[in-house]
Amino acid sequence: MAEELLPGGRVNEVVRVGATVRRRPPERAAYTRRLLGFFERCGWSGAPRFLGTDDRGREVLGFVEGHVPWRIPRAPDVDADESLVRVAKLVREFHDLTAGTALAAGSEVACHNDLSPKNTVYRGPDGGRRPVAFIDWDAAAPGERVHDVAHACWQYAGLGPDGAGVAEAARRARLLCDAYGAIDRRRLIGTVLWWQDRCWRGIEAGAAAGDPAMAGLRESGAARAVREAWRWVDRHRGELEARLSDRR
Ligand SMILES: Nc1ncnc2c1ncn2[C@@H]1O[C@H](COP(=O)(O)OP(=O)(O)O)[C@@H](O)[C@H]1O
Ligand SMILES: [Mg+2]
């Protein structure tokens, strides 16, 4: 069957073959497979199914039909408040499913650790596409709820200089937190900064160590952009925190 290269991957070459997707197994493949298998047994449809490996050693995953907004500018549906709320609810769902299981491994939950629009499949009528699943579970690991929620706020709410400004980013982050529910919003901005710092340093370190994917990311300006986002959040931290914590 014909292989079609899928656009939007920045780290892996991902191809579609019929109703499946083939990609290089992630570094922590065993954990990701256990997690995807667990979601399948729970009947949770917010992640692709893990179907095995092919004769070339690639992972075979179920193709999730829909729109993946890997390019800027994004379709307006993606940034609609209703989509943000739906993202938060999907995150809450898989956190609640994994809480207290062996997949949380003594931490709170299993975290995705790379939640962003480009790792989300949106589906629905034109002008009303909503998130239905997260893809790219390569970085999944046991963690705290606030880790995923902060990463999601950074990526979906636009916490950086390319977003819609401090007030709007804070409003969107708050919407996401409120839709998620029980989260300590006081820890949010600090955790966003932790992620951004880790992310740009990780790209730089990987590129310096000769990892071609990280070198490519660095070349494309990704590390610089994340560093700029860190600076922006750090500069506006006081106002962001005030807007997030106020009880109105
Ligand atoms: N299970 C899937 N269903 C549908 N599309 C997928 C699936 N997995 C990957 N894709 C497509 O392939 C692209 C790259 O996949 P991804 O897993 O995000 O790779 P990378 O690790 O390089 O970011 C995505 O942007 C998406 O368009
Ligand atoms: Mg991806």
From TrEMBL:
Name by which UniProt lists this protein: Aminoglycoside phosphotransferase domain-containing protein
InterPro entries cross-referenced by the UniProt entry: Aminoglycoside_PTrfase, Kinase-like_dom_sf
Pfam families: APH
Domain Aminoglycoside phosphotransferase: 52-178
Species annotation: Spinactinospora alkalitolerans
